[in-house]
Write a structure and sequence with these properties.
- This protein is an alpha+beta fold.
- The protein has a single domain, classed as Up-down Bundle (Outer membrane efflux proteins (OEP)).
- Helix content is 67%, strand content 9%.
- Helix 4 runs antiparallel to helix 7, helix 7 packs antiparallel against helix 8 and helix 8 runs antiparallel to helix 9.
- It starts with a helix and ends in a 10-residue tail after the last helix.
């Protein structure tokens, strides 16, 4: 079964039935399942457009198989006048059609199959790009939700700090100025929490507009995993499944087939016909056959030159696409590897900063630290926690992009 045919079945179906080989790699817990993802991708306008183009390509192939030539019926009527006597009403009729020479029909059939293959490749690329967009919007939603939760925790911590300062004020160990400073810190966190809540709503809206029927509840961000295998294995896998590279290969083969077709067209197709006529008061009946053949000239020669130049351009385009994809693979693999190590360091720093903030609050309660140290520890813990969150999401994004580009999740392996 062609890859396109299986994906068409998946797109046309409802929720994906359980298939033992539908998802050879377990879908990460913080991403939509294969069934949900396929349902979302099916709704994408770019995928719907590509599906329509596949149908259109099959009609193009049918047109090429059927030949561009059709029967032509010609008819004329005339009146022949004589100097003496009545006029003669005369008529003629002709039926003709051009005929493709042997070999051209096979070339046209191959061109039609190439149009279908190209439409298949465009469909696969549309699904791939939609999957990448789904990943980006989905991760934006999860990150904004986690940021909102992080600021909610910080708001509670700032309120706890404020209560600690107020308790020391009541005990005579803190001034009104210190209380005001702590209250201002708590208010600032509340403002950032309100902004984070708005960002989360906007991220959800962007996701729903592009992919309606998104699940209502966001899963928890998972712990980033290191990238398995080395760069050569990922490079080989992604190049083998790259839809843009497949399109470039097909464009080159199409250019070669078009050149073959133009070369064959240097020998023009003949037109055969039969005709009949009535003349001289109907006393003369004419029946005959006709053959016409265009005489090839400079136009056909220049057209062949253009087709041969198209082969060179398509070959150069394929090399350009391959080099671009290889550079993207190298960047994606490096990002996935380095981001995981960066997240580990950031996560360790966040735990240490959180412990420092808690210890500083306890020290302040015991009168062993001043209010500036207390608030600075909380602010630093927030900054480090936010950096750790960004590093976590960056590591997850990079690895998931690698999985999508390699067609390892969401049924893309059947594309």
């Amino acid at each position: 079964m062609k890859r396109r045919h299986l994906w068409l079945l998946l797109l046309a179906a409802g929720p994906l039935a359980a298939m033992p080989d539908a998802d050879p790699l377990p879908t990460p817990s913080d991403l939509p399942s294969a069934a949900v993802a396929i349902g979302l991708l099916r709704q994408d306008p770019a995928v719907q457009e590509a599906l329509a183009n596949v149908s259109g390509a099959s009609h193009v192939a049918g047109m090429l198989r059927a030949s561009p030539y059709e029967w032509t019926l010609r008819g004329t009527g005339q009146q022949r006048r004589y100097e003496i006597g009545p006029a003669s009403r005369e008529w003629s009729a002709q039926l003709e059609r051009s005929v493709r020479l042997p070999g051209k029909k096979a070339l046209d059939r191959q061109l039609g199959e190439m149009e279908i293959a190209l439409a298949d490749a465009h469909l696969n690329e549309a699904v791939h790009e939609a999957a990448r967009s789904l990943l980006e919007l989905w991760m934006d939603w999860l990150q904004s939700g986690r940021m909102q939760a992080l600021l909610a925790e910080q708001a509670q911590f700032a309120e706890s700090n404020l209560r600690a300062v107020q308790a020391r004020q009541r005990a005579g160990d803190a001034s009104t100025l210190e209380v005001n400073v702590a209250a201002g810190d708590a208010a600032q966190v509340q403002q950032r929490l309100a902004a984070a809540r708005a960002e989360a709503d906007k991220a959800r809206a962007r996701l729903e507009i592009r992919f309606p029927a998104v699940p209502a509840n966001a899963p928890m961000l998972s712990q980033p995993q290191p990238v398995s295998q080395g760069a050569p294995a990922w490079r080989e896998r992604i190049l083998a499944t790259s839809d843009p590279l497949r399109q470039a290969d097909l464009e080159l083969r199409k250019a070669e087939q078009q050149a073959s077709r133009v070369r064959a067209d240097r020998l023009p197709d003949p037109t055969f016909g039969v005709f009949t006529a009535s003349e001289v008061f109907g006393r003369e009946r004419v029946i005959g056959v006709s053959v016409s053949v265009p005489l090839p000239g400079g136009y056909r020669r220049e057209r062949l030159g253009q087709a041969l130049s198209g082969i060179e351009a398509a070959a150069a385009a394929r090399d350009r696409v391959r080099r671009t994809i290889e550079a993207e693979i190298s960047t994606a693999y490096t990002d996935a590897s380095s981001n995981h190590a960066r997240w580990q360091l950031a996560e360790q720093g966040a735990r240490q900063a959180a412990d420092t903030a808690r210890l500083t609050q306890r020290a302040y309660t015991l009168g062993e630290a001043d209010v500036q140290t207390l608030l600075l520890a909380r602010q630093q813990s927030l900054e480090v926690a936010q950096a750790a969150l960004e590093a976590q999401v960056a590591a997850l994004r990079a690895r998931y992009r690698l999985l999508i580009d390699a067609h390892r999740i969401w049924g893309l392996e059947h594309e």
